[in-house]
Amino acid sequence: MGSYMIHVSIFHTLFVGLFAGQTQLFDGIAKSLGYESVYHYAVIIDAGSSGSRVLAYKFRVPFTVFSQPNLDLVEEYFEQSKPGLSSYADDPEKGADTIVQLIKKAEFLTPLEKRRATPLIVRATAGLRLLPKEKAQQLLDYVARAIAPLGYDVGPHSVEIMDGSDEGIFIWYTVNLLHSLMNDETMAALDLGGGSTQITYQLSDSEAADFPPEDRHVVPAGRNVTLYTHSYLNLGLLAARYGIFRMEAADNGTSELVSVCVDPIVQREPWTYGNQQYRVSGAPRPEGMKREAAYERCHEVVRRYALRTLRRGPPRPPRANVAAMSYFYDVAADAGLIDVMRGGTVSAAQYRAAAVRACSAANVEQPWACVDLAFVTALLRDAYAIGDHDAVSLFKKVHGHEVSWALGLAYTTVMNRITTAAA
After folding, report:
1. What is the pLDDT of residues 311-336, one digit of tens each?
2. pTM over 0.70
């Protein structure tokens, strides 16, 4: 099935208590009887294509009488740095140091006496999947050597490339568990990174056989449920932007790129992708071109790239409520579609309307707004077949916690250790 089963085999039965907590009164009584809370820690590095992030967690084992032991999330620390680890393919030592510096920023959360028992896990995503294998492995080896002396629990599998399906499954778990939906109708999860995009949703028993076996995963959620999940490489926001520009240049290897999705006022705008700098200019437009026509010209190119790269989309669009994260959120926030702090609900039609505005605006401060909004619109409508007016809920945080697969990985790693020790 995939490596994720190691992590999620006990996910639901143990994760249901993560945000349930215990009342202060109940804990107070327990403490008066001599019970002292036990704390566990985990540090996860999300080495993404656009940047690296450290997520450090402090968990508490609350007092329980009859129920199975669980964990409450007490504290979380998040920090990020740019560019991503894959940008250091030719300087792996420097890339490894960026990871070390992030870990050091999170050191305060883990007491020194607990550090040796605290798992430190590094998972690279699409950025390293896009690199030649020998370059990617060299980066992983340098990172593994650099983090070994930091005093955490680092094992032989602590530094690896995460499979795309694992990203999708853990995001699905995190979103639904943070919203307490595991025993209800679950939300579909859309994740848009820099190098890849993931779509994950629950299947009914009757339709599971209609989905490709490699995209079906049976996971525990109180009961066994079947998920469809697929990760599409080169359809992350930054990879798609590059791919669109490169397609317009007929893949001729030039560093001087011209795009119909960039306003003509923008000329030779510097842009770095994959550790290489390009100059991007807006293609000339007929005088008096209408706003809609400017968008449609961009959309045609973007749609062609998206469908060519997608090859085979989901057998059906998600029917449940849809949650979207990462660049789906950032693009909407930059366009003013949602509150940058609180998130909100949007539709493909709203992304499209924002794209129409952006594609006719000479906005030198946001030169990529047109292509990014057009791409998100195409991804939702043309690739994932989501209806124009279907609601898409955008999340960066839920109950103050980062919406990240790292939380699920941290929790299951700690819980597996507790369960193994008890056994």
Report:
1. 889 999 999 899 999 999 999 999 99
2. yes
Whether 325 contacts 189, CB under 8 Å: yes
What is the tally of helices (H) and strands (E) in the chain? Answer: 14, 17
The single residue listed with the structure tokens 């990529």 is 368
Rounded to an integer, what is the distance from CA 61 to the centroid of its chain?
A: 28
Give me 405's structure tokens. 């697969």
Rounded distance between C-alpha atoms, residue 317 and residue 332, angstroms: 21
Instruction: Return d(Cα 93, Cα 339) in angstroms, integer.
Output: 39
Are 294 and 287 in contact by the 8 Å Cβ rule? The answer is no
User: Would you please indicate which residues are annotated as catalytic (active-site) residues?
Assistant: 167
Per-residue tokens: 320: 């449940």
3-state secondary structure of 122: strand
DSSP collapsed to 3 states, 160-210: EECCHHHHHHHHHHHHHHHCCCCCCCCCEEEEECCCEEEEEEEECCCCHHH
pLDDT digits (tens, 9 = 90+) for 59-73: 988 765 545 556 788
**pLDDT of 24-46, one tens digit each?**
455 555 555 555 678 999 999 99
Q: What are phi and psi of 75, to 5 degrees?
A: -150, 150
Q: Copy the structure tokens of residue 386.
A: 């989501």
Contact 178, 19 (CB under 8 A): yes
Is residue 151 classed as helix, strand or coil in its secondary structure? coil
Return d(Cα 417, Cα 422) in angstroms, integer. Answer: 9
* Of 419, 224, 197, residue with least CA distance to 326: 197
Q: pLDDT digits over 351-372, tens only?
A: 999 999 999 888 889 999 999 9
* Cα separations in angstroms, 268 against 79, 259, 263, 277, 364: 33, 11, 12, 11, 12
Residue 45's beta-bridge partner residues?
54, 122
> What tokens does 204 get?
């009914």
